[in-house]
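Title: Prediction job returns without error message
Component: structure pipeline
Severity: low
Priority: P3
Assignee: unassigned

Description:
Job completed but the reporter wants confirmation the result is attached to the right record. Sequence as submitted:
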Amino acid sequence: MSRNDYTTDDDETTDPPGGDETAGRSDGTAAPPDGDGTDADPGDGPDVGDPIGDPADGSVSRRSFLEGVGIASVLGLGGASAADSLFEMDGLEAVDDPIGNYPYRDWEDLYREEWDWDSVARSTHSVNCTGSCSWNVYVKNGQVWREEQSGDYPRFDESLPDPNPRGCQKGACYTDYVNADQRIKHPLKRVGERGEGKWQRISWDEALTEIAEHVVDEVQAGRYDAISGFTPIPAMSPVSFASGSRLVNLLGGVSHSFYDWYSDLPPGQPITWGTQTDNAESADWYNADYIIAWGSNINVTRIPDAKYFLEAGYDGTKRVGVFTDYSQTAIHTDEWISPEGGTDTALALGMARTIVDEGLYDEAHLKEQTDMPLLVREDTGKFLRASDVPAVDSDADRPEWMLLLVDGDGNLREAPGSLGERDGQKDYSKSIDLDFDPRLDAELTVETEDGPVEVRTVWNELRDELAEYDPGTVHEETGVGRETYQRIAREFAEAGKAKIVHGKGVNDWYHNDLGNRAIQLLVTLTGNLGEQGTGLDHYVGQEKIWTFHGWKTLSFPTGSVRGVPTTLWTYYHSGILDTADADTAAKIREAVDEGWMPVYPEEREDGSRPDPTTMFVWRGNYFNQAKGNVAVEEELWPKLDLVVDINFRMDSTAMYSDIVLPAASHYEKHDLSMTDMHTYVHPFTPAVEPLGESKTDWQIFRELAAKIQEVATERGVDPVPDRQFDREIDLQSIHDDYVRDWETDEPGALAEDRAACEYILEHSAETNPADTDDRIEFADTVEQPQRLLAAGDHWTSDIEDGEAYAPWQDFVQEKNPWPTVSGRQQYYVDHDWFLELDEQLPTHKEGPENTGGDYPLSYNTPHSRWAIHSTWRDSEKLLRLQRGEPTVFLNPEDAAERGIEDGDTVEVYNDMGSVEVQAKIYPSSEPGTVRHYFSWERFQYDSRNNFNTLVPMYMKPTQLVQYPEDSGEHLHFFPNYWGPTGVNSDVRVDVRKKGGDGG
């Protein structure tokens, strides 16, 4: 395959990249000849008729050899005798010792040349899959022609399965993307309507000048907070993430969250554990005696790590699957249970009741590590605080946040580690270690400032809640057998080390926070936290980056960041607030007015709020993945004066942009890669030069910064005071600031991608710990993936030699306070909104009714085996391994009821819209559910609608709170830590055969 160069005249209107192309290198020169002197494309073997040798000297041509074999078959001769008699070749005899003594036979060079290469580069794939797999990329005649898993991760524990190799079928064909027709090779400017696909090729200078002039206008007019930058998941390529984020930060623009927007964030974790997420690396699965895969389709979405789940079974680990369908992971479990969609909370609470009723809980863990012994007022539902009780003489700086419990003698005691005695959310100067034995089961009357008040423990409150989940109720709600779920609960509680692998299957529902909290409760009740082989591991996207400090300071050099929850921002600017139910709308407005959740552009002094005007998207496909995309297209997109997409391929966001800039592919740049599923860092290195006129993300934004500085200098633009932060936005120095190392103040130090990689490694505790001379440099990662040396303070355990990383040891083993109000795992939340909605404890609730309309079928959009989000959705090679077009999966009963057969074209519809897709009959599905595997590009549907057309945008108000309300030292908005999630699994639809009634 050659690296093709798509070209048009500068003034020509063209369709997206594709069509007639000229074979050759990216610089336009002809491909070098093959070693045999022919002009075959690099990487191809000789065609039939190409000489293998010179017949004059007795060697045999490939044509003659094949003709001879044909003659031999006619004569009925065997292969060796045919060779001897026809050609007198001695090269076909058997080789007795092919490993130790293999003779050289020149005719075999034909095959050897097919496996020859000029160079090998180490790289990986910058996709949101958590894989972070190291690959060797092979180059021949200047072309990437194949890749293979590197297989050289160093082992740190011989008792665990070998970490090698890592990879999947998507990574194994990324080569196809490097030279694909959909590669964007030149800057393009839209000349038709957005989404129409009409483009004019322009020069880099023209593209950057047009963008720069617009940006200078916006900043000079004070609309810098109308400039948005959206890019997801820093861990998959932190330098590329930082490239645009750094410029947006210097401009005073807005950086968007992604983890919550994709509904990947499990809100129950910050609620209960005060952290974004923390997980064991997947190698730790092997240390467990019992694993429940709960809504995590490991064999489909965690392919590089599935071996640990599978091999644990060979080591005696029992594996249970909780999936609504008989999934590709369920078939590999020892037991599969299938709750009705959206009833995971009821199932988990039923299991919790079994554990509590049968005394299978870890009492010591509950007393020390959780809020179960804390006292709650029955009059207000609030925690009992030291400030409520005159008899409690507290030394705490904030007695209103010193929470109380009762000891074995019935005396009120302050709960050590409560927020009232801590300096901020994370303060390890205090301890939750107890020098007395608190009571779990306590009810008493306390004399308070308001008079006598009845109080009781959270434990008693929880037991009352769990009493609602008797076996009959759980069975009726979930469909799971009474005996079955109780037995699973007992086995989990009695296992030596038990673990839950928690997936996105729970997160997509409206009440995902309640589901998270209920499932977490199972590991808390049983004390399965804080050591290898235990815990709740939630892997949805590479949300957490190991080299945090280096990445953060590279991405946001000013330290002043306008971060925004993308779900709320999209909701607000798509006009959905005006059509939301009154209670939700009121709570959203309150959260914004109180400053709990930011919305940009911010409100001006006169009470007005401008619309967003500018959006940069890179490394992501915002427009394709947007929930409520009908409103996004009709309401939000028209407000944007300029949409710029930086991309290596023509995806849906690129199609709906105004200017598209060609980005280097994953095999054409320097960067780093890491994931919370393993404890290694490894690199991207350029195997070949960027195709056509494409540039790396870092180079693109650096050159844009230079053009902005040039335009601002020509205009004489003065520094613009920032309304929110104590700084000025100086456009005349923005390029100089972009390439300056802000830590050392060295000018120009960060001009190149490679230098940015070194910066991250140098300024992160994981790769350059302060207490040792050991460090990891970029060259080390190129030689071999490097296991990280330490864990920074945004992790909850250390990295230990010879042990798989497992979280929560800071709290469970070291007795540091959990970063919650109570300083413990907190299942009771006494925020007014939680009390109002009766969600102070995890409880099962039905989702919103008739989302999308009153239709009989539930609509679900799970992740696919054949793509990672929308990457590879347009891969011809992978499309050949499936139906090759958007498909919905239907239970045979639902299909038969509607007269639908496998392969029919059907219309899936609700009040939001409709899509035409192919029907696939899926007996493994539960009746009543339509599965439309997500991320198909909009242009892969005839109507340009897509899987999200049927999904309205809605969000849960409790995910907008700040807690405590005055300080937010437990729950506060921080991008990708706490904010409203985009959800999409409470949607109702119906399906009809195309051409049928109403079709």
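Comment from assignee: result matches the submitted record. The first helix runs from residue 62 to 75.
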